[in-house]
Amino acid sequence: MTAYGFLCLLDFLIVLLFQYSLLRVARRRQSLPLMVWAALGSLAAFALLQLLLSGTRRPGTALAALTVGTLLLASLLLADQSRRYSEGHIEAAAVKECVDGLPFGVCCYWPGGLVKLLNRRMEELCYAVTGEAPRNGESLWNALERGEGGAEFLQTGEHPVVRLADGRVWSVLRESVELDGGTLYELVAIDLTDEYAANAELTEKRERVGDFNRRLRELGREIERMTVEKEVLAAKVSVHDDLSRALLYAKQYYQNPGAGDRETLLRIWGEAIRFARSEGPEHWRDLYAYVNQTALELGVTVHTDGTPPRGGRAEELFSDALITCLSNAARHGGADALFVTAGETADALSLRVANNGTVPEGEIKETGGLKNLREKVERAGGTMRVERAGEFAVTVTLPKEGAEDAVSGIDRG
Fold first, then answer.
1. 147: DSSP letter
2. Which residues form the domain of 260?
3. What does the pLDDT look like over 218-252, one tens digit per residue?
4. Which regions of 135-293 does DSSP assign to beta strands (E)?
5. 158: nearest Cα among 176, 142, 139, 134
6. Which of 191, 206, 232 delimits the end of a domain?
7. Pick from 334, 279, 342, 338: which is nearest to 307 by CA?
8. Do 314 and 260 belong together in one domain?
9. Are residues 298 and 389 in the same domain?
10. Do 293 and 410 sit in the same domain of this protein?
11. Taking the C-alpha atoms of 122, 127, 130 and 131 in order, what is their torsion angle to the nearest 10 degrees?
């Protein structure tokens, strides 16, 4: 290879080096002086290459070698300056690389949809939802907001939540910021896969707990039913025994009149008849009838205004309240009358129980029956209010749904 051929090859490589430096400086938007330097160096090297390739106006070998060496040194210095500038400045490529490594999706666009910045995760989300490249940020947001696309939308509107085919769940938020005197919209997609999995597991556990509570309530009702049946059976046995005793005494009396007492015979038969009439199954199954029976035994008259609820836990709680108030009125207030007012609204049931006994003085300390009653009512989501303005009264209010779920027992002793 001749000297001119080697210089031509070297100068061609210098042209390529200047061109590469120019493209790099322009793409990374580095300083303007470096860009001018690269452009002028590229033109000079190209002009020298044309002279070297011409056969008539070719410069001398020494001058050509000196010029090529100078241009080579200039190109190397330009490459070094570009490298130094990159090390001391944050470039757009570095920003893009950093944003691509974020664990959440980012898309920034101008009004109208022109995308300014888009990272890899948001690009994947856009492909999964719309099936195409994210060319327009506004179109992407409209698809997410309206729930349009091939993915499963768990929520739409201002805070869309989408589940992709691979099972990942993304929540997308949109915010606007002021930049360079204009408005820039920013879409941020956050991975909520773990949170949704935990929420689904919690929901499943709550459903299992709800089923368990329902079974417990059913078991409680069954236990109460069996208790009532046991009491009914005991009553039947008692009636049977008393009737048997009365028949046996009557048989002995008529077979041997001198061996028995007529008054005793009448008393035994009277007790058996009264017991048979008062201790039937309907009495044991009706909680309010039990209250009335207890009031009759205590010598207290019950006056009722309205119709107390029948069935369910509301009847249990209200009958419990009646028994408690009846017991306190008879033992502590010396009352002989109980005034019951039942009410109902669209959302709640209420029962007010007052008496004509002595109104207690001083602070009322809720112990025993009243304390237990308040705990049961509040556990059912209701309220209990104690009054003593002119008369002592207790008002129990239950939400209708709370009345269905409450767990209460009736103290018949």
1. T
2. 194-285
3. 887 778 677 766 765 666 666 666 677 777 777 77
4. 152-155, 161-163, 169-179, 182-191
5. 142
6. 191
7. 342
8. no
9. yes
10. yes
11. 170
- The structural domain count of the chain equals 4
Q: What is the pLDDT of residues 282-309, one digit of tens each?
A: 443 456 777 787 788 778 888 989 888 8
- In order of 75, 78, 81, 102, 342, the CA distances from 41 in angstroms are 7, 9, 14, 40, 101
Tokens, residue 117: 């910045």
One-letter identity of residue 358: T
Same domain for 222 and 156: no
My answer on whether 105 and 183 are in the same domain is yes
Assess whether pLDDT exceeds 80 at residue 209.
yes
**Residue (of 20, 13, 5, 1) closest to 45 by Cα position:** 13
Q: Which of 27, 56, 89 is the last residue of a domain?
A: 89
Is the confidence at residue 407, as pLDDT, over 60? no
Q: Looking at the structure, tell me whether residues 35 and 99 fall in a common domain.
A: no
Token output for 217 = 């309530």
Q: Give the integer Cα–Cα distance in Å for 257 and 254.
A: 5
List % helix, strand, coil for the chain (3-state, nearest 5). 60, 15, 25
Contacting residues for 59 by C-beta, under 8 A, at least 6 apart:
51, 52, 67
Q: For residue 351, what pLDDT is reported?
A: 92
3-class secondary structure per residue, 358-408:
CCCCCCCCCCCHHHHHHHHHHHCCCEEEEECCCCCEEEEEEEHHHHHHCCC
Report pTM: 0.39
